[in-house]
């Protein structure tokens, strides 16, 4: 790939030189005839620019040929991999996966609701110790407790799914020898 980068760099430089030469020629041609006689075009410069352009065309053709060969080799590798995959025996069905991220989120939710429940209960204890009835604290504590129960249930369900996902392949493997008999 470094050769491709080098060729691309050379092409860019040559195209810049050609553009500069064309700009100079256009600049000379656009100057009013009254001010000064039009300078003559330097044939050496034109020859040098044409030579540089031809070199870059050649380099570009070489680059395109290399890219074509890379595409062909890549295509051949893909076909070989496809043929190898088709010849290989079919893989066993994939075992169910455990959604660790969902389990982690459920555990975080449980921790947060338990923290909220502890905080609310502490506030409720302080209010009761001061003989101040705070109905909103009781409601807040009940809501925190309900959220804690929901989060605990969600964690239990996630853990159950994880256990089932872990045991399913083992049970299938254990059942296969029995079926063969």
Explain this structure.
The protein is an all-alpha fold. The chain folds into two domains: 86 residues; 70 residues. The chain is built from four helices and no strands. Helix 1 packs antiparallel against helix 2. The chain is elongated. The two termini are 58 Å apart. The mean pLDDT is 77.
Keywords summarizing the entry:
elongated; mainly alpha; 83% helix; 181 residues; 4 helices; 2 domains; single chain
Summarize this, please?
The protein has two domains: 2-87; 100-169. Helices cover 83% and strands 0% of the residues.
Shape: elongated
Compute the number of structural domains. 2
* Residue share in β-strands: under 5%
Largest sheet: none
Number of helices: 4
Q: Give the low-pLDDT segments.
A: none
Radius of gyration: 39 Å
Number of strands: 0
Give the class from helix and strand content and strand pairing.
mainly alpha
Order of helices and strands: HHHH
Termini distance? 58 Å
What helical percentage do the residues reach?
A: over 70%
Mean pLDDT level: 77
Oligomer state of the chains in this structure:
single chain
